[in-house]
Amino acid sequence: MSETSKTARRGRRTVARHGALSSPNPLAFLLKILGVIVAVVLVSGAGVAAYAAYDLAASFGDEAVELEGQGTAPPDIGAIEGGVDLLLVGTDECEEEYAYLFGARCTGADAGGQLNDVNMLVHISNNPRRVTVVSFPRDLMIEQPSCTREDGSQSSATSKTQINEAWGRGGLSCVVKTVSDLSGQNIPYAAKVSFGNVINITDAIGGVDVCIGNGGIRDRNTGIDWPAGPRTIEGIEALQFLRTRYGLENGSDLARISNQGQYMSSLARKLRSEEVLSDPATLYKLATTAVDNITPSQSLTNPMTLVQIALAVKDVPFEEINFVQYPVFTDPADVNRVVPNHEAADKLWAALEANEPIELTSDPNLTGGVVTVDPQPTEEPVETAPTPGVTDTPAPTQTAVPLDDIPGQSAADQTCSAGNLRANG
Q: Which of 15, 37, 272, 422 could be disulfide-bonded to 213 (CB atoms 3.0-4.6 Å)?
C-alpha cells in the first residue's frame, strides 16, 4: 500500500474562496519549481517572447559580422510539431549563500555533493494538445543504468538505488537516462536548476501568492513558522516553501510534491496577471533571469525551441493540464522509501501514448500536503435565443481515462498547504 493511501482520509476543508480560473498562457504548464526557468521567455506570447529570445540568442554571436545598414527582425516561427517530452531537474546542493537553510545536509561530516531532488517529466501531446507533468518522488527506489560521467568514466548499473542519486552518477544526462528507462519515454529535452536559483526567478516577478491552511506551517528544518492565510513569498521564503516537508500534515516527500503543485499554479496565475503581462521590462527581466539560472541540455540551447514549445501549448485550458505524482507503493524493505507501482504507471503511460484525456479521481486531501479549496459560485450564464436556421454542433468528446491510484490535480483546481504546527526537527 502506498504512503498516500495509508494516510487517514480527512474531511474536505474550506480554507479560502476564490473565483473560477480561465485558461492559462504558454507558461502555465511548465512551472512547478523548474518549468518557469525553461519557458519563462514565452510568457507574453509570440511578440515580446520572440524578441527576447532573439535578443538573448544574439549575445552568443558577439564576434559575428554585422552587415552595415541591414536591419534584422525576430524570425516568424510556429509551434513545434508533434509531441514533446521535457525533463526538469531541481538539484539540492550546498550553495554557500543558502547552506544554512539545508541543516545537516550542508553542515554535517558528509555535507556536499548534488542530489536531483526534483524530477518532473513534462509531456506535451500532439493535437489535441494536452500537458501532463509527472513528478517522481525523491525517495523512489529503482534500478538505474550505467552512465557516463563528465570525466569519461562509467558508473555501474544498480539494481535498487534512490532516484535522487542519479545526478551524482553522471549529471543531467544520467538523470534523463534513468527516468527514460523507468518511464519508457524518449526524452530529447532537459534542464537543471538549483534550489538557490529559484530565489532569483521568484524575485524577478515580485513574488508568488500562496495559501497556508490547517492553522499554519512550522518547520524547523527550513525555518518556517507562518500563520494560516494568504501569503506572498519571495526571496528566501520561496525556497523555504518549496523545500518544506515536515511543515506539512504527514511530513512525507509525497506531501511535499503536492504542496509544490500549489506554488506552480499560483505562479501561473501571477504570470498571467496584468502586473506581469503588460510590463515588457518585467517580462525581459524574467527572461534574462531564467537564462542566467538554468543549465540546459544542448537540445535546448536554441531559444527559439523554447518559443516553439510554448506556442504548441498556449491554448491548452487548465482542465487539460495535469500535475501527477508517479504512482508508488511503500518499500517493503524500508517504510521511509517507496517503490514503483508499475501497473498504475503503465496505465498512465498508455493514456499519454494514445493522447487520451485523463481523470484524476484520487482525493488531493489524502496526500497530507494540501487541502482543497472551494471556489466561489460562478454566475449563471445568460441564455440567448437561438439564431433561426443555425444548429449548434457539439464538439467531439473523448472518454477520460480514470487514474484511481495516481495522486494529482489539474491546473483548474485550487489548494492550500496542509500545514503542520507540531514541533518537528
A: 15
Instruction: Say if CB 31 and CB 88 are below 8 A apart.
Output: no
- 37-255-365 Cα angle (round to 5): 115
* Whole-number Å distance between alpha carbons of 156 and 172: 16
Euclidean distance between the first and the last CA atom of the chain, given in angstroms as a whole number: 27
Chain mean position to CA 30: 5
Q: Which residue has the cell 550505467?
A: 146
Residue-wise pLDDT tens digits, 18-46: 333 444 433 333 333 334 333 343 343 43
Burial call 226-258: b when 16+ CB within 10 Å, e when fewer: bebeebebeebbbbbbbbbbbbbbbbbbbbbbb
Rounded to whole angstroms, how far apart are CA atoms 154 and 170? 8
List strands edge to edge, sheet with 224-233. 224-233, 208-219, 415-418, 370-372
| Helix-helix angle 195-204:280-292, to 10 degrees | 170
Residue 179, pLDDT above cutoff 80:
yes
What is the pTM (predicted TM-score) of this model?
A: 0.76
Contact 411, 28 (CB under 8 A): yes
